[in-house]
Each structure stands twice: as structure tokens, then as C-alpha cells.
Amino acid sequence: MADHDLEITEEIGYTPAPTAGAALEEVAAAEAVHSLEQLIQRGKERGKVTNEEILQLVAQPEESVDQLGDIYEKLTNAGITIVDELVDDFILDVDLDPIVEINNFIDQSDPGVGDGVRMYLYEIGRVSLLTGEQEARLARQIEQGEKAEQRLKRIEARSPEALDLRRAIDVARDARASLTNANLRLVVSVAKKYMNRGLSLMDLVQEGNMGLLRAVEKFDYRKGYKFSTYATWWIRQAITRAIADQARTIRIPVHMVETINRLMKISRHLVQELDRDPTMMELAMECRIPSILTDQQRLQYQLYPAQLEPDCVGAYDPYMVNAVKKAGERVRMVLAAEDTESPVYQRIKETQAYLQRWLRYQPKPEEIALECHLPEILSEQIRIRLQTNPAILNPQSHLYDSSMRQLLERAANKVRDIQKAAQEPVSLATPVGQEEDSSLGDFIEDSKAEAPSDAATNQMRKEAVEQVLDQLNERERLVIKLRYGLHLTDKEREMLQALPSQEKYKFQIEGGRHNTLEDVGKIFDVTRERIRQIEVKALRKLRHPKLGKKLRDYLE
Known about the structure:
This protein has about 550 residues and is mostly helical. It folds into three domains: about 35-250, Four Helix Bundle (Hemerythrin (Met), subunit A) (Up-down Bundle), CATH 1.20.120; about 265-420, no CATH class; about 460-555, Arc Repressor Mutant, subunit A (Orthogonal Bundle), CATH 1.10.10. The chain contains 28 helices and four strands. The strands form two sheets. It has a two-stranded parallel ribbon. A two-stranded antiparallel ribbon has the order 3-4. Helix 7 (about 100-110) packs antiparallel against helix 8 and helix 17 (about 320-335) packs across helix 19.
């Protein structure tokens, strides 16, 4: 960066990165794992991986339990240990006394936990935990029972084989119950982490138990990982869906709940890092949520293609060039892996085919990276540019980039929308004050309410109009009111209802509605010409200066 540029950035309070390499290394150090190959490599180096790292590979883990199962299988086959941080230590430690464990858990629970909850926790604590071999044996029995059920449907009920099949089905039923009961404490452990989100502990446990039953049905012992590791995701899925569907007065989709949770977590991190509340733009830059940043990444290159051209003086951005090269390397790595089941690989292949038809030549990896719209490929580009050249957001700098600022403002607006969706509805009847003698609704302005002065003026105008219309006879007054939609008194309604034509045309005698000459004629059972004559005669009377003087003040 030139000295002049450095002076400007120092004046506005920014500290640019010293070199492109340092900026890229800083981003790469904090960068999340974006491919299974990277995670396996990291796991081989450390000997283990965490569930948080596995979560980074799946956009919506609560909706992709089967995909998580495949990831676990590949990690297990690679000899990598999975550290399950969601499960409390006492659940995984089979050497501890189950009764002591559950008593300790009860003592640490909230004071508001009722006797029914304590009794339930005590009962599930009496069930012994299972070893990996026992889990596999029960899973085999369940599988054999399912096959026996299918076989039993195809043979005669009284055949000798049917007796053995029914016995296998009974064994499978007992095995399913044993596997479920031995993992009920796992449900409680996971449910405890979702308390104070709108559902009671027992409601969370009940929903988690439904997920546990689903995990028992889907568990495949051949893949080698522990049942508790696999069941955790089904339990989490059931609980998070219940919270999304039942905890709020206004339902929020599950994917939005996940986005809100990520945004809140990032917001707390930024508060600790910055020692202040982050701005909307800072949240948008940090969250790396595809729905927020994808448009920015695309438009960044569409609006500024010259920043990749070294011959373009003033626009060339070497940091962007490095970012694009890095994205191209990622595309090459994904294509070389040929993981046909990977969504990232499938998206890149689709983009490659599309560009080949459009450009009529084999696209470069960099071109695929710019077009594929995958956060795994282009998640850090805007951050790199802002870290290396932050003055582009300052309107007083000659480096100011109005389009980039507009893109970030759009991202900030998306963050605001997510935060608004996270707000809980509050009842207007909520007591306010120490004595609770007022409600929240008493302090909220009713924008549709009529001002007292306007209400008084309208009432006086209505009375003045009635006084003027009293100078007409009954038929003239009714014709004027029906023609111009004026308010009908109770006496006038009774008069209209007494007319012979009222039943047929009752929908036309409501006050406040303008009626045509033909409609009014049908109500009075006369021709439209007769109604016109009555109207003209009535208006001639109302135009008298003596009567008009009473209403003239309300026209100003």
C-alpha cells in the first residue's frame, strides 16, 4: 500500500495488514474446515476430532442426520476417535455406579425440578449402561427381528417356522427396549442443554425420547461407532424441532432457528473480542452464513472484474488475486477427490458443465470458483479485502468503494431481519410497575386511534349534518343518505326495513355505502328517474345560504 494510502487509513482509525501473505495466513488460521479430506487429515494429526468440527461440514446438521452417519463411518474407518462433547462424562463412563451418577445429576439440577422429574431420573439411573459389544449384540437381534417380521408375512401362520420367527420377533422387541432404556440418560443430558428455551425439562425429554426411538431404528452396528454418538444427533434433531414448533407463539422454521443460534454465538464472541456490541456490518462479515454473504461474493467480482487485471492501474488488487487463486486450488482439490456423494463436488460439477456450455471451452478452476456460489469455496474473499484495505468503506477516503458498502449494508439488513425473527412476542396484558397496577398496553401508542380533538370535531360535524338534513322530508333525507353513504339512524333503518322491497334489496340499505340511482329506486320500488328528481329537489334545498352556513366552517 502506498504511503499516501497508509496515511489516510491511519487518519480514519484503520490498521491495514502489512502484507498479502500475512493477511491470508491470518484468515487461514481461523478458517473453518470445509471438506471431509481436511477433517480426516486434521484427525490423523491429533488422533481425534470434535463434534463441532464435524458440524462445520454440514449446513443444517439437524436435517442431515444420515449424512452425519456417513461422515462418522469414514472417520471411524480412518482410525480417528470422535470426541462427543454433547454427552456428559458420567454417561460414557461405564465404571461408575449408575445410582450414584443419577443422584449427583439430581443434586445439580434446578431447584424447580419436581418430584415427578426426580422420580423419573432415579428410575432411568437404575438401568445399567451398555458396552460396545452389548450394543452390537442388541442391534443384531433387532435386525434379525425385522427380517423375521418380513418373513412371517410370507409364510403360513401355523407352520413350524412361524414359531421360530415369532420367537425372534419377541427377542428383537426386548432388545429394542433394552437399547432404549439404557440410553434414556443420554436424552436427559442433551435435553438439559436446551432448557430455558420455552419448553420444560420433561417436555424436552419426551421429545428427545422420540428421537432416541428413531435412532434405535436407524442404527447400523456395522459402521463401528458407538450408539450414543449416533443417537445424539437424532435426539438433538427431535428436541430442536420441538423447540421450533412449540416453544414460540409465532413459529420459526428450523433452519432459521439454527441461523439465529449461530448469529447469537458469533455476537457473544465479538462482544468479548471488541469489548463492545458489534455493528450489523461486523456481524454480517463474521457470521459467514451463505444466505447473507453469497450475493456479496458474486457481485464483488461482477462489479470489479478489473481488480484481477495487473495492467489496470488503480483497480488491480493483488489480495483479491491471491483469494481467487486459493479458491481455484480448492476447486482442484474437490475435483481430484472425486467424492461423488459430496454436495460440494456435485455443485462444482454442475457449474463446470454449465460454464462449458456457456463459454464453449473448458472453464478454469478459478472461473468455477467465482460461479459456483459455494461458501466452502468463496467464504473469505470480502473479509480479506476489508482486512487488507479497510479504507474502501470510508466515504472520505479516495479509496472509498460505494458498491462494496452497499453490499455490506444489504448483509447488515439481513442480520437485522434475523435478529427481529429471534425476538419473543410479549403480551400487551403484561403487568408493569412495582405494584403491577398497569399493563404494557397502557404505554403503547395506538397509531390508529383518533385524536380527542379530531373525535370532537367529527362528532360536531355529524350533528351539524343531521340538523341540516332535518330540514328535508323523510323520503328526501333517506334518498340523500343512501346516495352519498351517510350514517343511518335506528329510526331510519326501521323505516327502510318496513318497505315491501326491503327483503330483496336489504344488502343495499347499510349506512356508509354509496348507491346508484337504480339501486335506490329498487329499494323504494320506483324508477331511477324518480329518485333523480327527488335528489335534485333535496340538493336544491340544501344549497340555501341559510343551511349552507352551518356546514361551511367544516370545509376549511
